[in-house]
């Protein structure tokens, strides 16, 4: 990047400063957030490398922890590393959730203590005895990164140092044994798209649909409050608000327009509230929210599982949502805290074209015209693409029919392996949270 381009970026009206990284990677050091599109060149992205939390999935906990099967960790790590490498090979800086959170904990001891106390409380540890034991155990882990990874992994009773006499005389221990969890794992963390969402130059710290995933948002909350690169970012939503909303339902169509899915995981009340918060914020150009109502099922859990943008005028879509589709347009009302609501009667193609200022858009059906193929490949996230530049996407290699169709439409398709990653029901977009797009 030349000095002219750097000077241009520095004029953006964001709370962001840009420097040139002096290390071997030559990546820019980009502070803050800048995501006003689904397709503009991706420069910085947040991931979480699957860890030992996947080892703590069992057949009895799959439903509670939102998995349909148990991934093989070794292969899942290899697949995720391949994903990360494709990003780096295409000029994207990759940062990891666990590293950013560790950097927050290293700021000072007060933040570390506050985090541990909050984490233990939200893990459902009510008894003072266990609270103190778990606090001392976690606080004894000196490496901040190892501490963060342990909070993600979960804690067995047998992990905790305890008096043998107390264990011998505890009815709970005698009945349940050492193998029970006192703090449950968070295996969904490698889907970094959902706990928070980057919107323009601000962020939504989300309230999750499932109790299992609610603790995931603690990390984003601390990063966007305390990390020096992100603490100045505007907050459009807070994890303590009463209505559910998740990042997989939030798409940045352009500088002025968001699309948000009304889905199994995101409530209409949450969309109204975030729209009000965005509209009254003076640092954003967003003036329109399209609320798209999709079937509320696990297979269609988020908008991005059935619909993603891949080029200026092209989208992938699961044909199962293309019946009568309810779309509502939310804009500023007359009062400061009011919303103007309009039900859109046009087709989805017409609505998208109008929003993007185009004559027409193309919806590319997952699996083509074959219903069985569409259902199979959508289940394996055939519509969940991560666009890293206009017309250039990362996809799971297993969806060969859809991938061939994308190539026929002129899209550059970068495939990654997914035999284990896909068991968590999420694709490349689900596994990534863009922090900066040009």
Describe this structure in words.
By secondary structure, the protein is α/β, with parallel strands linked by helices. The chain has 14 helices and 21 strands. It has helices spanning 3-10, 73-89, 97-105, 109-122, 128-139, 144-153, 164-168, 171-176, 211-214, 217-226, 268-279, 348-356, 371-379, 400-408, and strands at 18-20, 28-30, 42-47, 93-96, 155-156, 181-183, 196-199, 202-205, 234-237, 250-252, 257-262, 288-293, 307-311, 314-317, 326-332, 339-344, 362-365, 386-389, 392-396, 412-416, 433-437. It has a five-stranded mixed sheet with strand order 10-11-12-15-16, with helices on both faces. A three-stranded mixed sheet has the order 4-3-21. Helix 3 packs across helix 6, helix 3 (97-105) packs across helix 10 and helix 4 (109-122) packs across helix 5 (128-139). The longest helix has 17 residues, at 73-89. The radius of gyration is 22 Å and the shape is globular.
